[in-house]
Amino acid sequence: MHPFLDQPGPLAFAHRGGDLGHPENSFAAFEAAVALGYRYLETDVHATADGVLVAFHDSRLDRVTDSTGAVADLPWDTVRRARIGGTEPVPLLEDLLGAFPDARFNIDVKAVQAVGPLVEAIRRTGAWDRVCVGGFSDSRLAAVRAAAGPRLATSLGPREVARLRLRSLTGPLLRGSGAPFAGVCAQVPERHRGLRVVDRAFVRTAHRLGLQVHVWTVDDPTRIRALLDLGVDGIMADRIDVLRDVLGERGCWNDGSTGSGTETGAP
User: Is 207 annotated in the active site?
Assistant: First the structure.
């Protein structure tokens, strides 16, 4: 098992830092998640025009900040003046890695321009064991793997997820379906375009192949319980208080303070 995954599960991920009243992907959001006991933080990365790596979801500043423009077209000196929600600066990924040394970061690489700066940031900080890189592009993930090598954990790309889903439905009957998977986990939605992705067969097939299954983004307690009953290995949530409470009621909330889950409620 890759060290990134080597924690008692199910893993609880604070999606973009979680929603506890702080702007997404802000330092304040991640700080609040860690204070709540989260040890897995999910974020996204883009690179500025001068190659500075920022923890930011959108390709443009417009939706969540008081500034405008594409991150890739702006120098860091401009992006650093933007305020998320009008109050919070856009953080550097390297600063987050340094500020929360006990946290593990699941990082969605949003653009090919960010691949090189991301691998360099991981190398400079020595964060190989506490980073997993994912994304919605097989080519970007292939570039990350080529640049970083096998030491870095990655999730499956879209084509690999589709192949895993097909294998869960048919078994290794189709040509090429038995080829090895490049990642260590499948990070998927429950459904995609109206079609169910995560069911018991999908989870069992992933586990037989040595892959974990992490599901995003789930905030409803009923859905969280149903996914846990299927045996998923991790859940990403915005309502990180809700996810913590559901895991606590089952006696499997792990805040990283001990080597096993910490019971915070009746199972």
Answer: no
